[in-house]
Design goal:
With 362 residues, the protein is an alpha+beta fold. The chain has a 5-stranded antiparallel sheet with strand order 2-1-5-4-3, with helices on both faces. It has a 5-stranded antiparallel sheet with strand order 7-6-12-11-10, sandwiched between helices. Strands 8-9 form a two-stranded antiparallel sheet. It is elongated. The termini are far apart.
Amino acid sequence: MSDAHTQLVDRIYEAAVLPELWPEVLMDLARYGGADAAVLFATDLDSSRFITTANFADTIRAYIEEGWFARTDRTRRLLAKRHAGFVTDLDVFTPEEFAREPVFREFLNPRGFGMGAASVITVPTGDQLVFDVERLTERGPIPPDAVGRLDSVRPHLARAATLSARLRMQTVRAAAQALETVGLPAAVLGRRGRVLAMNRSCEGLLRDLILDGPRLVLTDPAADRLLADALDAVSTEGGRPARSIPVAGRDGQPPTILHLLPIRRAAADLFAAAEAIAVFTPLAMNHVPGLSILEGLFDLTAAEARVARGIAGGSTVAGLSAEFGTSSATVRSQLKAVMAKTGTTRQAELVQLLAGAALPVR
């Protein structure tokens, strides 16, 4: 093998352990395969899950923003090919189809690109990753010898992707087990809330708080609706960084707070199915929590926590308005926000929740 091949393989395995190196490695891969740019993305077509070379970043973002994943079957044709190697666009499109395909004519060609080669690799988490190199149109199709060079490193790409996925999952599972040592039930959640792993304390909640299902499902319907919304937000770029969800007490069990903690979004996240950790905190107290605790438990602002504590302590909207020197409309707005974040629909439920009493079963 050539020195260039050896150096690229070494870099690929470095990126397996240090995912922040992938953009540079993708550039090396593109050059080795006679291309000019590269992108690595997950085939669930989630716009937040891709890594690209710097010179292709604006193009791939525009590709996603303009909805081209849904407007072309380029990726679907690649997946249908089921080829254990790199295939070019001319391997999945006839010359006539290629000439009239909108993604080339309307999107890639105006940006100077339009000649690509890609390969699909499945990692242990079940995700499929696509390594795609793009060549400038003026240079013509990627030649067979360049495809051969890409195929020569594909086994190393597959091993590196597998290693990255396993390392990432071990890290996340270790976090759940660390929470076990301090008595906190926790579950690792994958795409769309699928449970990937639970610690023993969390398994103990299955009878009372959690149901079996395609995702983490809560027995409290109101809390489960909040969880479904929170999981959608976790999967959305720019979604809320964390969410605390109150779960009603029942059958002698105290109310519980579910803290949904998104896993850091970075290059590493492309190689693991894990998106969030769910941590359950029993709320077994006979007094109204302090302001800082309220803020942390329910993601309240300082003003919202102050209103929540006041209402739980027996104050009225009018009384709080006078105490805080704000209008009644402002207090009502803050109270409305508190009730939305705590999943309560009546002030009496809010008082019961913050006092640690079991909420009525709805």
